[in-house]
Amino acid sequence: VQLVESGGGLVQAGGSLRLSCAASGFTFDDYAVGWFRQAPGKEREGVSCINSRDLYTAYTDSVRGRFTISIDNTKNMIYLQMNSLKPEDTAVYYCEERSPWFGNCRAEADFDSWGQGTQVTVSS
């Protein structure tokens, strides 16, 4: 599976960004995709995930209510809409996948593969 992220950038606190992830190479109908992030000097943090079949979603507590994950199965695209951004959201954001996957996904940073990442910087 190949994953290519885009959409990162510099934004002021309170602003919004939409990250995109182009996915290819899935060989299973049931999989989970998600996003994790890593800030300088910090461990990876799972942000959100979504199931490909039933569209079940999960979020880490710090982004719930501000971020929304979605998937367009017709285009093999995964999105992360980020609103009300805070300086502590600054990190490199990675798209990740786990396939096959059955059951409810979890917002974790240990899926099977991930992309090259896209930088998100939130200024105060």
Kindly describe this structure.
The protein has 124 residues and is mainly beta. The protein is 0% helix and 50% strand. The strands form 2 sheets. Strands 2, 4, 5, 6, 9, 10 and 11 form a 7-stranded mixed sheet that branches. A 4-stranded antiparallel sheet has the order 1-3-8-7, with no helix packed on it. Strand 7 and strand 8 form a beta hairpin. The radius of gyration is 13 Å and the shape is globular. The model has no long low-confidence stretch (mean pLDDT 95).
Shape: globular
Helix-strand category: mainly beta
* Average pLDDT metric: 95
Strand tally: 11
Strand content: over 45%
Main sheet overview: 7 strands, mixed
Element-by-element helix/strand order: EEEEEEEEEEE
Percentage of residues assigned to helices:
under 10%
How far the N terminus sits from the C terminus, by CA atoms, comes to 36 Å
Radius of gyration: 13 Å
> What is the multimeric organization of the chains shown?
single chain
Q: How many helices does DSSP assign?
A: 0
Unreliable stretches covering 5 or more consecutive residues: none
